[in-house]
Design brief:
The complex is a heterodimer of chains A (about 280) and B (about 475). Chain A has about 280 residues and is an alpha/beta fold. Chain A is about 30% helix and about 30% strand. Chain A has 8 helices and 17 strands. Chain A starts with a strand and ends in a 6-residue tail after the last helix. Chain B is built from 18 helices and 16 strands. In chain B, the strands form 4 sheets. A 5-stranded parallel sheet of chain B has the order 3-2-1-4-16, with helices on both faces. Chain B has a 5-stranded parallel sheet with strand order 6-14-7-8-9. In chain B, strands 10, 11, 12 and 13 form a 4-stranded antiparallel sheet that branches. The longest helix of chain B is centred in the C-terminal third of the chain and has 21 residues, at about 445-465. The radius of gyration of chain B is 23 Å and the shape is globular. The N and C termini of chain B lie far apart (about 50 Å). The relative contact order of chain B is 0.13. The chains are: A alpha/beta (about 280), B alpha/beta (about 475).
Amino acid sequence: MAKILEKRLIRHPDVFYYRIDAPLISRKAKPGQFVIIRLHEKGERIPLSLADINPEQGTISLIVMAVGKTTTEMSTLNAGDGILDICGPLGHPTHIEKYGRVILVGGGFGVAPLYPIARSLKEAGNEVIVIMGARSKDLLIYENEMQQACDKALITTDDGSKGIKGVVTTALKQELEQNGANMVMAVGPAIMMKFVSETTKPFDIKTIVSLNSIMIDGTGMCGGCRVSIGGKTRFACTDGPDFDGHQVDWDILINRQKTYLNEEKESFEAWKKHHAFAICE
Amino acid sequence: MTENNSKKISLIKTPIPEQDPAKRRSNFEEVTLGYSPEMAMKEAGRCLQCKKPLCIEGCPVHIPIPQFIKAIKEGDFKKSIDLIKTASFLPAVCGRVCPQEDQCEKNCTLGKKGEPVAIGRLERFAADYAMQSWNGAGIEITKPTGKRVAIVGSGPSGLTCAYDLARFGHEVTIFEALHEAGGVLMYGIPEFRLPKRIVAHEINLLKDMGVEIVTNAVIGKLISIDEIMEEFDACFIGTGAGLPKFMGIEGENLNGVYSANEFLTRTNLMRAYAFPEYDTPIKIGKRVAVIGGGNVAMDAARSALRLGAKEAAIIYRRSEKEMPARKEEIHHAKEEGVNFELCTAPVRVIGEEGWVKAIECVRMDLCEADESGRRRPMPVKGSEFRIPVDIVVVAIGTGPNPLVPQSTIKLVLNDCGYIIADEETGQTSREGVFSGGDIVTGAATVILAMGAGKKAAKAIHEYLMRT
């Protein structure tokens, strides 16, 4: 059982920040890694990216958007509550070195795991630019944090309510044309990472993406998270989650992510029937 | 046993009650129901009590077989379990899943003329009886040595090693990556063949003996072997061969293609059969094809039927004779209506809108035996055909889990990534680090892993008492 030390609503109404007591994990975890949590005896195991790591305090931070059953159920937990199982750190850390000019691209709440990566890249002596995208300004998260951690922060919104009107790739293309980059890293929905990879390809800039496939154990045992990289089957949990975006077969990944859409809906509906009171409005 | 009695010995095993196949194919309750005390005593009466018991030689952990059977015959069930527990920590498990026909029962003198003594069924009886009536047999533990041993992995080898080390008086901590201890006994072998409450019972016994079990601890990620060796006096690595193999054929990443590990883990460990009461879902569809001919393939096919599939087929490239699965499992699968497409190999998985629609196969001719002693299958040109299916389960074997080997310096591996360890002692290339089970041998059986855990425990004990 891992205790939640702090919970904050960081984007109304459904994105939450959790700081969790996990001394052993925090000691070893590095940016780019993830944990797998299970809320209770009947719960599923879901992977969550690390949004912050604090070995001195013995804590890790997670950003969770309440989109399905487990994440919504988690959103009902508060400081003082416990998470039954928390397992990690899993996956390989994001490879950090002095690349030169690095552009980070974050979509939706994918910005959260980019935060510790941005800080590490900065510490390693890189010039770090972040492009953060959302549908509208109210859906942006970690704006201040990223502005502080990076040399330059570009914001894009689909509706133009803040920053550049358009999607992240619009800003990325412009940035690459004007200033270039030595490395691009993207975290967010698969479709966004796919288009980021397609945008960087003509520029021939190495693009690292963090793949979020469906997982059970996260230790290489089930093979459910397998992805096709350069025509070869790889496991996102033990070989990744970071891969060369230009080598990823995005269609397979996006298709596999949809495997349980119906079941996820069924499970969520059943839960909502019994917990209507619990959902924060 | 008197001379007079032996003349009347039945040539067949006392039958064991089983759930009716038509009924059991739609539930997850245990298939084989076990002997009553009367049945067990009757079966125990068949044992010849050979002066040179060859059965013991066939047992990887050398259970005193004639002795425990004699105790059953005399109705002293407590004594029988005490005798078994001198050698084996998991009798309720082994009585169910050991391939006795290739081990103890293969050597049984009675087997020369008829059926051997049902040693496995008797072992199971003794263990189950003990579980009901004494809640575990009296286990002698020698006085604490003050030495600490870490066990990595809580599968059959790790549990057995922990049991023996705890009895030798060492302080034992088991690290398990998943949220439940038991390894393959929990995530792999289905409830209908090995009820999880039995595994849990055996594991609780270990806890009662003072063994600490730390779950959610992925060694190699959370804690390294080097760190373990700073804190513990010795370490046993029993992480198993958990990495699923795929065939490398077209369409293998379509939705609806599972590794057997995933299919069984969702079902067993995550209890997907009780979805949505339990959160983890599983896709079943109407028709399920399982590729492979081992026990895991049988488990997957039989689970698929229980999960609601109308049809389940085993696709295996050789004939039934070469199937690595136990005869009993093949028999049970057939009884339950699993179809067998033998001498058949998959060529590609055909999809439609991202989902499995069919599997294209080719018939195989069996040629002369290869190095494994089994006849080599060769595709018959032009024999390609399609089987319409919704789900494909790939059960063609597993490889070594890379997390511990890759993260541990000075641990010598073989070309395939398995840990190199001494067969008799489990000693690896690193001092104080021992290993055994599937991570050394490649995927094998529960009892062989237990045998390795047992040998390693003895070697670790000797090592600790020397240092």
